[in-house]
Amino acid sequence: MKGGNMGNMMKQMQKMQKKMMKAQDELHEMTFEASAGGGMVTVVANGKKEITDVQIKEEVVDPDDVEMLQDLILTATNDVIKQIDDKTNDTMGQFTKGLNMPGGMF
């Protein structure tokens, strides 16, 4: 491989890295929302997987059935995290197509 080709390849890699970093920053700024129990519990998170809000409708709070509330919170939280993972994989996957990257890289 000639030096010029290596230089071009390095420039392309740096350009791709900048695009990846921009895409990742945009993902981190996104807001994701999931609900369970027909909207009785809603969980909001950012692209960094930080939970930013939890809304619980008053009528779902039953002291005699705390387990149901816990299940609704878990369901909504797991769903919002899955949404973030799916969006991250879709967005960042465009940069790793054709590359043999180890699983779970992003």
Task: Report on the architecture of this protein.
- The protein has 106 residues and is of the alpha+beta class.
- The chain has a domain at 35-91: Nucleoid-associated protein YbaB-like domain (Ybab, Chain: A).
- The chain has two helices and three strands; from the N terminus they run αβββα.
- A hairpin with a 4-residue loop joins β1 (31-36) and β2.
- α1 (3-29) runs antiparallel to α2.
- This is Nucleoid-associated protein GCM10009001_27830.
How do the strands and helices of this protein lay out in sequence?
Elements: H1 3-29, E1 31-36, E2 41-46, E3 51-56, H2 66-96
Antiparallel strand pairs: 1-2, 2-3
Helix pairs in contact: 1-2
What can be said about this structure in brief?
The protein is 55% helix and 17% strand.
